[in-house]
Amino acid sequence: MRGSVLIVDDEPLKRITLQIELAEAGYTVYDAPEAPSAMRLLEAHPVDVIVTDLKMPEMDGITFLERAKGLHPDVQVIMMTAYGTVDTAVEAMKRGAYDYITKPFSTEALLAKIEPLLNVQHLRRSPDDDGENVHRVGNLIGASHAMRSLFEQIRTVADSERTILIEGESGTGKELVSEAIHQQSRRRGRPLLKFTFAALQPTVIESELFGHEKGAFTGAIRQKPGRFELADGGTLLLDEVDDISPDLQVKLLRVLEQQEFERVGGEQPVKVDVRLICATKKDLRQLVQDGHFRQDLYYRLHVIHLMVPPLRDRRDDIPILVNHFIAKHGAVARSGEPPAVSPHAMDILLRHSWPGNVRELEHVVERALAFCDGDQLEPKHIPPLGDHDDVGQQILPAPEIAKPLNQAVADVESNMIASALRRSNGNQARAAQLLGIPRTTLRDKLSKYGFDSGSYAQH
């Protein structure tokens, strides 16, 4: 089950309809006709979210809100209200309600409000790696299917002596993956050294990797071992390996094939025993096809291949990572406890596309903590996140002037629907939530554009 919801409404038909449709969406649902019986139910069955009418007999919605919060401070409340009582609903939000929804409303609209709340509840139930569903390997943490699969791969290949190629966008944690592999391997008692090819001259890189002899070049006043020698018996991570020059590609290939090299200015071969891990943010196969990377070296590096997923493809991990970074940076609120994250703030973090991945998320959390002076992180504490906040939307090229407006709009709409279906693994209800439209509207558009949502499901 995805979470638990309590429906409180004195209209039997509306209450029963919501109970059935929320249960079909995967939630555990309780219902009560009025506030006193709802309070008795809460004493026996704490829930994640309460959806309550504002006007009820015996006890109004605001009084019920305050008593429910007194019993379970973490429970989140959504007020159902008629048009004429919106001002009262806003007052309820000031007293601790998360949001309100105006009658009549669709179940899809309500689901769109419930979803971010349950992500926040998951965050509070999973303090770092102590939750039952949170997994950790080394300094990597996550609960998503993608990360659990990566963790299993790390455990499987750790003791292999084969070369490993780690691919992933900048900021996804490729260096942490290499550390986890080393820590899980038989070489964990030996050195783990790291070297990046980015922004260094080839002559400097060669000396840093292979060392140099005294007098090999101006300034070489003594013999110096390189990274390969220093990592002997252990593991060497070569990061940004896509930036390696053609000449150095040849020398690296020799090390991989013969486990030996010469220092710069030297003639005597140096033998080493090094487990090599390489990391890249680019597609090496494409670089081979473009003639920028040696095919024989590519096959030597691609013996074992690990892909680190971008954060936008593992959004389930965002609440866990936020909590982890709050703990990592030692943030303490006035209460003496780590600050909580408001539902609205978490919703912003969940909807951002995170082009900088986990590194960007940590930076945002750290900045938010610097500006937080209370017990809770709020939207006002989160720095501007750029033009990536609309989930499922893509920046499309400007349409040609000659293209009819209705066709240009249809192209954008079709692209957004395709993106939402990919992100939701073909689940229409979830795709509709991402797009902010009712499920019935999505179905009409799927038919209009000829989409088959089943083709987006992973098998």
- The total count of helices amounts to 18
User: What is the percent of helical residues?
Assistant: 40-55%
Poorly predicted spans: 122-132, 387-402
- The count of strands amounts to 16
Q: Briefly, what CATH class of the largest domain? A: Alpha Beta
The radius of gyration over CA amounts to: 28 Å
The largest β sheet comes out as: 5 strands, parallel
What is the percentage of strand-forming residues? 5-15%
CATH superfamily of the largest domain: P-loop containing nucleotide triphosphate hydrolases
**Numbering strands along the chain, what is their spatial order in the largest sheet?**
2-1-3-4-5
**Second rung of CATH, namely the architecture of the largest domain:** 3-Layer(aba) Sandwich
Average predicted local confidence, pLDDT: 83
Computed structural class:
alpha/beta
Distance between the termini: 21 Å
CATH topology of the largest domain: Rossmann fold
Short description:
The protein is of the alpha/beta class and 459 residues long. It contains 18 helices and 16 strands. Helix content is 43%, strand content 14%.
Topology:
Elements: E1 4-8, H1 12-24, E2 28-32, H2 35-44, E3 49-53, H3 61-71, E4 76-81, H4 86-94, E5 99-102, H5 107-125, E6 135-137, E7 140-142, H6 145-157, E8 164-167, H7 174-184, E9 192-196, H8 202-210, H9 227-230, E10 235-239, H10 246-258, E11 260-261, E12 270-271, E13 275-280, H11 284-289, H12 295-301, E14 304-307, H13 318-328, E15 340-341, H14 343-351, H15 357-371, E16 376-377, H16 405-423, H17 428-435, H18 439-449
Parallel strand pairs: 1-2, 1-3, 3-4, 4-5, 8-13, 8-14, 9-10, 10-13, 15-16
Antiparallel strand pairs: 6-7, 11-12
Helix pairs in contact: 2-3, 5-13, 5-14, 5-17, 13-15, 16-17, 17-18
